[in-house]
Amino acid sequence: MATTKDKVDVVTIGVGWTGGIIAAELSKAGYNVVGLERGEDRSTEDFQMMHDEYRYDLRHGLMQDTSKETITFRNNLDELALPMRQQGSFLLGSGVGGAGVHWNGQTWRFLPYDLEIKSMTEEKYGNKLGDEYTLQDWGITYDELEPYFYQFEQVAGISGEDNPKGAPRNNDYPTPPMKSTPILDLFKEATKNMGLHPFQMPSGNLSENYENPDGETIAQCQYCGFCERFGCEYGAKSSPNVTVIPTAKKTGNFELRTHSNVVEIIQEGGKATGVRYVDVLSGEEFIQPADVVVLTSYVLNNTRLLLQSNIGQPYNPETGEGVIGKNYCYQILPGAAGFFEEKKFNTFMGAGSLGATVDDYNGDNFDHSDLDFIHGGSISITQTGRRPIASNVTPSGTPSWGAEFKKNAIKYHNRTLNVTSQGASMPHRNNYMDLDPTYKDYYGNPLLRLTYDFTEQDRKLHEYITQVCAEIMGEMGADIIEEAEMSEHYDIVPYQTTHNTGGVIMGADSQTSAVNNYLQMWDSESLFVVGASAFAHNGGYNPTGTVGALAYRAAEGIQKYLENGGGQLVKSKSKSRLT
């Protein structure tokens, strides 16, 4: 028998970047907010012994326990999906701060082309990809979203400089770019020689001490090289734990409840009225009523909880009907490795966002008229810190063990560089998420099933951008150049990126999208679903900056909804499907 708590104005399901932003903005406005987080609480003090590569990098100490909750995976509809029993292609975070604790800090704005990709592509090239690709606009323009991008950057203190090929800015970055290094300078010189436009990567590892508009302090980066998969013991990596969560707590209107796993969103009369959750320590069940429910979990969990709660119409790849689970996208990783015989580099020191980038081959910044793919990707060199256990890069043909392996691993440890791209991912009708009919989690609920494989669009983009990366590496003077290869099928192992998107996509039409441009559900007006689950496709960047912008817009929308006493904030082009 579940115990019912006192009703609050807002409850969030997850307390990472999105849940923290919602909590901070609504609690500052005077609303009572409860944040439910299934993991433990964490702060800078908990990261003092974080430089344990084996525990946190290889054994994924900050990640979700796949023995209790995971996903099942298959490449296509004809295969049997099986559970992922180890952290593989992507890393699912757990605990207060979520992925914002262990991210690298690379903070981008998606391009204007991204937000109106279907309209802009068809206007210039026609229906270039065909009907199998479920491309659509996001229901918002870049100009509408621009102020929210800057709001996130101000709160996070992002360090950066102007991107000559990027989205236009109305303000400078809050802090100057990070230090450049001989590695980054080599990349910048080479790309300038090729007529490209390099710049310093925008960074959540701050170049200087910074106080944000809410009075929270973020420290200067120490360039220790332990960012990705680690929490920052200096408080120098922008994270929810040092920014929005402390702000929410200071208001006195926010209550954080850890070890609280939400298993159902309660829906009555077309509205979400609260959530049912389990205390994972005691096993007790609770119901938390609220005027507004905000789903602020990870992409996969956002989709799963809606399907599990029977809210919205599940996507059917055979008919094309439905929206929940639709347009799952990942990313591809074109690139080239360069091995140098004489030059040596200090690859040990670094930071998660210490890098240089060119955007000349991102979005529609280059002509696709004679190409058989659309979009592209940012091309970067990063100096994130080469840690000793997992960094044994050797040229092809080197044995994987023995004397020759040891010799080459030592020789090339500081003589190897990588130029890589984050290639955009376009939605395909056969790439989607639904509930697995067989496997269940620790609590007896169906696991999420992921059906995903690479497409012809992916392969053609990968081949083209990889050649560009190899040309850059050649201009940098590498003696051996090895181009990245793409496997025949996507594999859930090994790790690639954690940039999953889609499943609860946004748009202007309730027939083809799940949420409007405030991330309010068409089918449940008091339910907002915030995160990269709203992306209608995946772009050529890390998603966090765009996630942050959408979260600030959602917070504004929630406040309007509460002030107005309910109602849809945006009118759909089609009539909504009320559940």
TrEMBL record:
Residues 218-328 form the Glucose-methanol-choline oxidoreductase N-terminal domain. GO terms for molecular function: flavin adenine dinucleotide binding; oxidoreductase activity, acting on CH-OH group of donors. InterPro entries: FAD/NAD-bd_sf, GMC_OxRdtase_N, GMC_OxRtase_C. The keyword Secreted does not apply. It comes from the Bacteria. It comes from Piscibacillus halophilus. This is Gluconate 2-dehydrogenase alpha chain. It holds the Pfam family GMC_oxred_C. Belongs to the GMC oxidoreductase family. Residues 427-551 form the Glucose-methanol-choline oxidoreductase C-terminal domain. Keywords: FAD, Flavoprotein, Oxidoreductase. The lineage of its organism: Bacteria, Bacillati, Bacillota, Bacilli, Bacillales.
